[in-house]
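Milestone 3.1: sequence recovery, worked example.
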């Protein structure tokens, strides 16, 4: 016999709007088509960046994928496996490498509609679909060779499947929930941040069925443990888990994982901003890394104020709508708990804080907005829809067309070098060498560690040694803010080789140093010995 959800699991308000089924299907289909266009538009326009190259390598790019490689991938073995077989069919162009993420991003739209119908009621279905379709955050990760759009998809599907299981405890519903949980875990281990909510939903059926659900839960937990068992040794050795101990004192000489700090007071406000309008409205990521000060914030004050006003009001209305549906406890487990946990990781110097690490919480925010839309009168609904559409259109325009917000242009830099490089010359990848190696696979590419910039004498010695290995050297410098925040290396190059060729691409600087340039270097900087 089918079971029915308890009263606490049902919406506590009557839907203000109840569109007929045919209109609902048309609206979801239209949102899915718009999502497809947004995710495929200029999909291969930008260069791959360092994290995308890491994904390409973990998927066996340029070669084969061994079982050992798969077991060492603690950031998403399922995505790497899918990408490996996809590359064998579609190749390794930027468009091809990002296509699986784009497909996952498109599927998030009907999945969100399904989830909204189960979690909030019929009236929230259409707003949820359109919010998922246009979200700049989802568009960003749908156009990146990373597993985050697939992670969001499984987060949505797993929660919807568990709600379906509450509604009808059938074999099909149980199988769907189990499969979505397993695939979510194998996509990205950050999926475990949803475990408290998933456990609550699993046990949230009729009280009479709870003993049976507890028994089945043990079997499910065992199956999921077996699924991730092959990766547990690698997970245990990759991170320093002792750092998560409460009241842990930092050991002598311990430094932050990235830059000068692993966690910042503005991390959570930045997360809310990024979830609302993506990375392409307000200060760009490159601008924040180089000039994270009050002046930067003031230059973008209008955009930040508009975002805070529109989404702040909508967020309050959404929380009120969720409260009327008795979903605030779920909201805490879905959104607040993951954010607090990742913040704790950062404060303990265990893992840096990044919005993508909390991507599983994004659907909850969109659901709150959808609930607010469902409860609004038509006039207010149109007003807020216009406000969101305006902000998102500006953000997406920046994403597609404005170089300030674009990823580093390694492809353009290496294409220029390839057109002018002479026989016997080398390319030095400095700062972020992985994309240089990817786009310079037919060139002689060497790595040079930017960390030498912290010791000027060693920097000169090591750089002179690198130059002596070739008749001419092309220096490709990018992402210098982590190892050389003062940009000392670039300033030194400019003063030491004033006549060397120089080019600037988006986020990438290139120097061409020839033997004649080396001969013009100041006498105090010339090497006393030559490295063969």
């Amino acid at each position: 016999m089918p079971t029915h959800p308890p009263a606490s699991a049902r919406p506590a308000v009557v839907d203000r709007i109840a569109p007929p089924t045919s209109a609902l299907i048309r609206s979801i289909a239209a949102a899915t088509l718009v999502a497809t266009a947004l995710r495929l538009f200029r999909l291969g326009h930008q260069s791959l960046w360092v994290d995308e190259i890491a994904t390409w390598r973990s998927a066996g790019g340029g070669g084969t994928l061994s079982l050992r490689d798969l077991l060492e991938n603690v950031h998403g073995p399922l995505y790497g496996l899918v990408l490996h077989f996809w590359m064998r069919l579609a190749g390794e162009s930027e468009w091809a490498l990002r296509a699986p993420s784009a497909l996952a991003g498109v599927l998030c739209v009907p999945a969100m509609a399904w989830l909204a119908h189960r979690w909030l009621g019929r009236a929230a279905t259409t707003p949820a679909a359109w919010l998922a379709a246009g979200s700049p955050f989802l568009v960003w990760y749908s156009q990146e060779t990373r597993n985050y759009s697939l992670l969001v998809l499984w987060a949505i599907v797993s929660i919807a499947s568990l709600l379906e299981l509450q509604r009808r405890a059938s074999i099909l519903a149980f199988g769907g929930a189990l499969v979505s949980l397993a695939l979510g875990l194998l996509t990205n281990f950050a999926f475990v941040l949803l475990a408290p909510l998933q456990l609550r939903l699993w046990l949230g059926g009729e009280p009479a069925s709870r003993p049976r659900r507890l028994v089945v839960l043990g079997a499910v937990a065992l199956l999921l443990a077996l699924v991730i068992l092959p990766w547990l040794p690698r997970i245990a050795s990759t991170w320093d888990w002792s750092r998560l101990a409460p009241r842990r004192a930092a050991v002598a000489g311990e430094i932050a994982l990235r830059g000068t700090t692993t966690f910042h007071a503005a991390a959570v406000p930045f997360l809310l901003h990024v979830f609302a309008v993506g990375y392409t409205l307000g200060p760009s990521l490159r601008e924040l890394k180089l000039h994270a000060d009050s002046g930067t914030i003031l230059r973008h004050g209008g955009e930040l104020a508009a975002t805070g006003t529109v989404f702040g009001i909508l967020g309050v209305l959404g929380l009120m709508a969720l409260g009327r549906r008795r979903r605030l406890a779920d909201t805490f487990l879905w959104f607040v708990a993951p954010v607090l946990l990742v913040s704790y990781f950062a404060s303990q110097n265990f893992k840096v804080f990044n919005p993508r690490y909390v991507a599983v919480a994004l659907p909850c925010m969109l659901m709150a907005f959808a609930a607010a839309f469902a409860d609004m009168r038509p006039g207010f609904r149109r007003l807020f829809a216009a406000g969101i559409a305006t902000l998102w259109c500006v953000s997406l325009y920046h994403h597609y067309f404005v170089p300030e917000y674009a990823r580093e242009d390694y492809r353009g830099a290496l294409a220029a070098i390839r057109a002018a490089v002479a026989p016997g010359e080398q390319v030095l990848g400095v700062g972020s060498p992985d994309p240089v190696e990817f786009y310079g696979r037919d060139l002689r590419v060497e790595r040079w560690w930017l960390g030498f910039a912290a010791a000027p004498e060693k920097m000169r010695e090591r750089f002179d040694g690198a130059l002596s290995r070739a008749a001419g050297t092309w220096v490709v410098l990018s992402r210098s803010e982590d190892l050389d925040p003062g940009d000392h290396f670039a300033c030194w190059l400019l003063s030491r080789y004033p006549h060397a060729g120089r080019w600037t691409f988006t986020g990438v600087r290139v120097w061409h140093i020839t033997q004649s340039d080396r001969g013009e270097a100041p006498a105090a900087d010339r090497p006393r010995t030559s490295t063969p």
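The chain has two domains: 17-238+260-405, 410-525. The chain is about 60% helix and 5% strand.
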